[in-house]
Design brief:
The protein is of the alpha+beta class. Helices cover 33% and strands 18% of the residues. It contains eight helices and eight strands. It has helices spanning 20-26, 33-39, 74-83, 106-121, 132-141, 165-174, 200-206, 219-228; strands at residues 56-61, 87-92, 97-101, 127-131, 154-159, 180-184, 187-191, 214-218. A hairpin with a 4-residue loop joins strand 2 and strand 3 (97-101). The longest helix is centred in the middle third of the chain and has 16 residues, at 106-121.
């Protein structure tokens, strides 16, 4: 039979269902899927599949969009980042959370994003960066899981370098009897059962320390960002 009449063999694709248990670990019950989907920007889908081999990073901005202070338009920032060569850029809520793909180092991403914000918005904003693998390890550790019953009162403070011993002592002195904290590497995990509004521990964590940049996110935000930063196929 002539090759022009031969049929192309059909390829059957097997469907794979991802179990819901893993998603339950990453997404607290207090976060409803509908509310999250409304807050998360959609990443660009025009990038080639080679992006699947590139590292994913979470970029955290310190102290933006607080009332009328340090106003940064997240749609404007996403556009500016894509124009600078960052790929698969998305953001979550207005508190300065961006997920992107890049071959650059964390240090280079931090410097470049900080410079871009300065140029575009006229603000000098501290920028902390963690890889997907690092954020995954932070969530896996979850050192205060037995105490932290409300993800909005459970914070992770990300530092630009390992927390020095003298700062740990100052944090310990500031914590009240009900609050708990744990320091692991460049992160401080803290539990504030009464909230952070009048917490001396939170004030200490939120204050500027010479030579160290820091910014905090509650556990609900941390787990949402981890879910957003997962490497995926066929974006």
């Amino acid at each position: 039979m002539s090759s022009r009449y031969q049929r192309t063999p059909r390829i059957r694709l097997k469907k794979t269902v991802v179990g819901g248990s893993a998603a339950a670990v990453l997404m607290p019950a207090t976060l409803r899927a509908g509310a999250v989907s409304q807050s998360i920007s959609k990443p660009s889908r025009n990038w080639p599949q080679t992006l699947n081999c590139m590292p994913r990073y979470v970029v955290l901005l310190r102290g933006v969009n607080l009332a009328k202070r340090n106003r940064v338009s997240m749609p404007g920032l996403r556009s500016a980042l894509e124009a600078e060569g960052f790929r698969d850029v998305s953001s979550y809520v207005q508190s300065g959370n961006v997920v992107l793909t890049s071959r650059a180092s964390q240090e280079r991403i931090s410097r470049d994003v900080r410079a871009l914000i300065n140029k575009r918005f006229g603000l000098d904003i501290a920028v902390l960066v963690r890889s997907h693998n690092e954020l995954s390890e932070i969530v896996r550790r979850n050192p205060l899981s037995r105490d932290a019953s409300d993800p909005k009162h459970y914070l992770v403070t990300f530092m630009s370098r390992k927390v020095p011993a003298e700062l740990v002592e100052r944090i310990r002195a500031a914590a009240d009897a009900e609050e708990k904290f744990t320091v692991i590497g460049r992160e401080v995990f803290s539990w504030h059962p009464a909230g952070v509004g009048r917490s001396p521990l939170w004030e200490r964590l939120g204050s500027k320390v010479a030579g160290i940049d820091a910014t905090s996110r509650n556990w609900a935000t941390v787990t949402t960002l981890l879910e957003m930063a997962k490497p995926t196929t066929g974006r």
